[in-house]
Amino acid sequence: MDKRDPFRHNVLTSGHRACSGCGEAMAARMVCDLIGPDAIYINATGCLQVFTTHNQQSAWQAPWIHSVFANAAAVASGVEAALRVRGKDTPVVVQAGDGGTFDIGLQCLSGMIERGHDVLFVCYDNEAYMNTGVQRSSSTPHAVHTTTSPPGRLSQGKHHLKKDVISIVAAHYMPYAATATIAYFPDLKAKVEKAMGIKGPRFLQVLSPCPLGWAHDSALTVTVSRLAVETGLFPLIELEHGELTGVMRLAEQKPVEEYLRPQGRFRHLFGNGEGAAELRHLQALADARICRYGLLDAATEWDTQSAMQSMRHGRGGYVPVLQEEMEK
Amino acid sequence: MTPELAFEPGSSTAYHTGEWRIAKPLYRDKWPPCGQSCPASEDIQGWLALASEQQWETAWRKLTERNPFPATMGRICYHPCEQACNRGHLDSVVNIHAVERHLGDLAIANRWRHAPLDELPKRQRIAVVGAGPAGLSCAFQLVRRGYPVTVFDAQKEPGGTLRSGIPAYRLPKAVLADEIDAILALGIELQAGTRVGREISEEELRDRFDAIFLAIGTQRPRRYQGDASSHSVMSGLDFLHRLNRGERMVLPSRVAVIGGGNTAIDVARCARRLGAQVTILSPQDPPVNHLTRRGTEMPVSSQELMEAESEGVELLYRVGVRRLVRSGEHLSGIEIAHVDQVHDRHGRFNPVLFDGTEAFVPAGLAIFAIGQQVEWQGLEGLSQAPESERVWIGGDAGGSPRFAVAAVGSGYQAAMSILTALQDPAAPFAAEEKPHISFKQMHLEYYPARPRHEGRVIAQPLDGFDETVQGLAESDARQEAERCLSCGVCFQCDNCWHFCPDAAVIKKGAGYEIDYDYCKGCGICVQECPCGHIDMEKVE
Ligand SMILES: Cc1cc2nc3c(=O)[nH]c(=O)nc-3n(C[C@H](O)[C@H](O)[C@H](O)COP(=O)(O)OP(=O)(O)OC[C@H]3O[C@@H](n4cnc5c(N)ncnc54)[C@H](O)[C@@H]3O)c2cc1C
Ligand SMILES: Cc1ncc(C[n+]2csc(CCOP(=O)(O)OP(=O)(O)O)c2C)c(N)n1
Ligand code: SF4
Ligand code: SF4
Ligand code: SF4
Ligand code: SF4
Ligand SMILES: [Mg+2]
Questions:
Q1: What is the value of ipTM here, to two decimals?
Q2: pLDDT tens digits, residue range B439-463?
Q3: B428 in a domain, yes or no?
Q4: One domain, residues B299 and B358
Q5: Are B38 and B105 part of one and the same domain?
């Protein structure tokens, strides 16, 4: 056990092989430390699974199983049912990439929700199949350059739109489904804690920038995720039994260009006429999402500024790990 | 029974991802612009942080390490720190002087006492000439380190120009006296009413003391040379000295004050309070447009000018005195003319007047506030002595910028030189070299906008010398201190700790440590640190 940090368990600890600046590693460490080590984690195939369990070395300091790519939700359903039979209420958590959620894992996820399993499903959405070298998924946004959606004569990157998975999930009469991202830790924390307080199936979609696939500077991972929210492209919302119950208001709407510029996956859109049309399209997509969720006029104090302000001595983190407990 | 695994997995921590690193983050304290521009080098960020946590006494102790006059400076300092404050790039600068004053006032109300730094008594004796801010600051630093210090002052009461020049409505005498008492209580011997060069000779001083600090200010007013008679003519300094000694002069109904600086404004506002109608004849323009040519604007704050005008002081800009108009001895007024150039080709203050622009300003008294110089009479020998003879000159007399906190800073510097020369065990006192930080290295998005708290201006009858600006309430002082962005100094916001994808930032009780075994050098912590505390360095 790694016990370096008296204030955090580090469920996902150091030494993992994620790229420098990986948003998925950051997101998973935050989520798992908020849940704690007393849970069973089921991981679909993907970067998170590969970079944390390399060469017979594990970065997990909690019970953790690797399922296959498609069936993480089914494995979790089984684990949860077995625990129930044994009279235990250990939390069960699925972790999967967007490929393992939006595409190949969708059917098992849908079944798990429909059967009402008491499981939290966390999707780390980095908007492509990263572990196999950046192929487009149904989560990849419109106009993005991936190895399977190269810009050229016929299209400016991916032709299709990003799948609205949160609506699909919510449409299952889902107790709790929410979006979050790493830039706003207090928001992510509130959502994880809320999800853990609810019985039944729960779903979190955590936008997790990938410096490799998005082709941005590794230092900009948090900044880029923040801009995704501030531009309206990635709304932070909560849906309970299909109803919109919470949004994070935008203190100020930023133009999408601020989000797109630092990312190489949008580079082809700049400096040519067809690209310019796509830039307008992406701006229109952001405007439509803002309008759909009322991101500029929602009646809430919770906005992109209040969720981000920093404070002396922090704004609360994880349940503190006591020194004696660490020694055990 | 736990089933046996085909292999026992190890921990990923056995693998050191730190080897991937091509750049290395480093925690490093910076020196914020407020402290850089405070002439007393106060650790402003440091004491504001303590004040924001309501550790008032500790904050006061931190502040007074460099400046034992917070209640005084919080009232009268021109606060260059605020001009430099990075918060100005976000909304409005931190009201540093108001929090400083709050700390000083708390110290007075609670009778906090300065503590000695070094209990070990030293033998070498030090003489300080002049009990103004420079002299007292130097004495304070030395006596706290165990040296016997004697302070001489020609005046009956200590305080220098703070007491004799600055009017009570800006700095109540009791506030100054309380802060001075706290300094003297450390065991300084004060010989008031003792002019060095008259009551005690230079030679005697040299014989009796191992080091001498001259902090005699600029006590000789520059006088108007254009008129043979001194009837109905006074210097601003004499006027203020008499007033500050408690004398309530009877003035003619109209008074003209000649000069464009702070002294002129103080004189005018005091004369107003004594019932006269007052006109300031300023050789310069009002201080509004900082883009105009250097030296053509009054070197005063527009705030002070506004307060003077609201009290009914009239101002004439860009005018100089052609002659005093008398009927017999009696002054009937002043002939003025338009000032073309304020300074001559050598940069000296020497207004050039235009012929044909003359006008008449009626006045029964002309008060000239046109500058002041060092009075070296009786100190000619010491004035030439080099530092090797253990004689130092500081404050206004030593050429520091002529404002009080510069004198305090100069007193501190002199004390450090004296300690070095006397081979104090703690010497040398090399200033800690910290890199500076500008707002460009910070991430202002992390700070919400918050309004600045101001001390209230109290309306009062015009003949009063009571204080015009109120201090902050305790909760306002705390909130104002919280507005500090902590430029370049970690304020434990946890960002780097939360955001490190590699769990390479370890949170310790009071700080953080980077575990370089695992840090991949992604740079996120640097990018997301609000205050610019973390630097990135290339590794070879
Ligand atoms: C009217 C006026 C208003 C001002 N307002 C402000 C303000 O609002 N804010 C600000 O920051 N600054 C202000 N200043 C400037 C500030 O007061 C001075 O810069 C500061 O007091 C200088 O400190 P000092 O210790 O060098 O000298 P001083 O304060 O002038 O003290 C010198 C002392 O030395 C004594 N002395 C002189 N010769 C001898 C001798 N031979 N033997 C013994 N004692 C001697 C004098 O009696 C005097 O007490 C003002 C100045 C004036 C004149
Ligand atoms: C059935 C199956 N098909 C394909 C793969 C190859 N594969 C491994 S990871 C991966 C991509 C994972 O993408 P995603 O779920 O988005 O996770 P990410 O790596 O982006 O975090 C693929 C296609 C596989 N392991 N199993
Ligand atoms: S490819 Fe992207 S998701 Fe995968 S480890 Fe690298 S940064 Fe993380
Ligand atoms: S914000 Fe604070 S630390 Fe920064 S310059 Fe202003 S007072 Fe100094
Ligand atoms: S965030 Fe972590 S890995 Fe990245 S540079 Fe900072 S300490 Fe290193
Ligand atoms: S990010 Fe916050 S906790 Fe980390 S060094 Fe900067 S101020 Fe300190
Ligand atoms: Mg993916």
A1: 0.96
A2: 999 999 999 999 999 998 887 778 8
A3: no
A4: yes
A5: yes
Residue B297 inside a domain? The answer is yes
Helix runs in B422-528, H state only: 474-482, 495-499, 524-528
Taking the model in full, what pTM does it have?
A: 0.92
Instruction: Give the integer Cα–Cα distance in Å for B91 and B439.
Output: 13
Measure in Å the smallest separation between the Cα of A81 and chain B Cα atoms.
20
Which chain A residues have a beta carbon less than 8 Å from that of B504?
14
- Taking CA atoms only, the protein residue closest to ligand 5 atom 8 is B519
Pick from B482, B506, B523: CB nearest A4? B506
Q: Are residues B109 and B138 in the same domain?
A: no
CATH code for position B523: 3.30.70.20
Ion ligand 7, residue ranges at CB < 5 A: A 97-98, 126, 130
Which residues have C-beta atoms less than 6 Å from ligand 3? A 18-19, 22, 24-25, 47, 51, 126, 130, 210-213
Do residues B268 and B258 lie in contact, with contact meaning Cβ atoms separated by under 8 Å? no
Cβ-defined contact of A14 to B13 (cutoff 8 Å) = yes
CA–centroid distance, A216 to ligand 3, in Å, is: 12
Q: Looking at the DSSP assignment, which residues form a beta bridge with residue A207?
A: A125, A181
Q: Please give the angle made by the CA atoms of B427, B428 and B431, to the nearest 5 degrees.
A: 125
CA–CA gap between residue A71 and residue A59 (Å, rounded): 22
Task: Name every residue whose Cβ is closer than 8 Å to that of residue A85 and which is 6 or more positions away in sequence.
Answer: none
- pLDDT tier at B290, thresholds 50, 70, 90: very low
Q: Which ligand is nearest to the CA of A130?
A: 2
Q: Is residue B3 part of a domain?
A: no
- Asked whether B261 and B300 are in contact (CB, 8 A), the reply is yes
- Check whether residue B531 and residue B448 sit in a common domain: no
pLDDT band at B390 (very low <50, low <70, confident <90, very high): very high
- B523 interfaces chain A, CB cutoff of 8 Å: yes
pLDDT at A325: 57
Range of the domain at B346: 223-371
Q: How far is CA B338 from the centre of its chain?
A: 35
* A23-269, CATH topology level: Rossmann fold (3.40.50)
Q: Are B521 and A20 in contact (CB under 8 A)?
A: yes
Which of B45, B487, B490, B497 gets mutated to test ligand 6 (max ligand atoms within 8 A of its CB)? B490
Tell me how far apart the alpha carbons of residues B23 and B514 are, in angstroms, rounded to a whole number.
Answer: 13
Tell me: do B236 and B191 sit in the same domain: no
CA distances from B108 to A239, B103, B422 (A): 58, 9, 33
Residues B366 and B261 in one domain: yes
Residue that has been written with the tokens 């300690």 in this structure: B419
Among residues B103, B133, B165, B130, the alpha carbon closest in space to that of B40 is found at: B133
Hey, is the C-beta of B501 within 8 angstroms of any chain A C-beta? yes
Residue B507 to residue A8, Cβ atoms within 8 A: yes
Number of domains in chain B: 4
Instruction: Please name the residue of chain B whose CA is at the shortest distance from the CA of residue A61.
Output: B11
B492–A contact, CB cutoff 8 A: yes
- 3 state DSSP class of A94: strand
